[in-house]
Amino acid sequence: MTWILTQSATQVDILKPQAKQIRIDDICHGLAHVCRFNGQTRHHYSVAQHSLIVADIVPQEHKLAALLHDAAEAYIADIARPIKLLMIEAAKRRNAAWRAVLNQHSHSPVSAWEFAKQQRIFSDPEFGGLSILIDTYKQIERRLWLAICERFDLDPALPDCVHEADMIALATERQQLMPLHPEPWECLEGVEPLAKAIPEWTPTHARQVYHHQLMELLATTHRTKVFAQAERELIHGTSTASPAGLMSIAQEVKA
Question: Is the overall model pTM greater than 0.85, yes or no?
């Protein structure tokens, strides 16, 4: 079994997710109920609320990407940064160990595999096309992200401003939602938190606000793209729309 069941009764195959399996209501519901920082905050604080803060920081043209940048977590939850880093480091060490084994047993791949299992370099056989030489969680997250990008017509490569806003939000969350502790977070060096207070939201409220913002951005983004495409086609003489029709589209975009 490699699929999960969402609240909309949709089966999402986490090994081979498809854009048609990605539903707006599932993302809104999931992100509103998934807590940041493993739930170790002063009050319920969801990935949905975090995403809204990130989207509020970036320029208008990148707000949709910012709002959806953690959308995969609606399906596979959130993993604390230290755990993610440990998983990546463990994957690198397994990879290095496997390369060493291959060098020693280059004459026989079967012997290399058997030796690797005996040395407990691997705990499970390769499964579902996922390489166990690298971080499995990140692979699944990446596959979901690509399906989400296809569903919402996004570039999988997030702009730098989204990454920067993500860190600003993190600094703000640490300051306002986490207990005081003298140990610095190295990833936040030089990052200034926001002055605006983070309100306490219920999952229901977070879902409603996130859904409203997402629908607004989708409407604006898609109308703008339709107009841009129509304009390009008209310029290159491949459009079936008249100039008057193009003006009508432009008025809709501005509305």
Answer: no
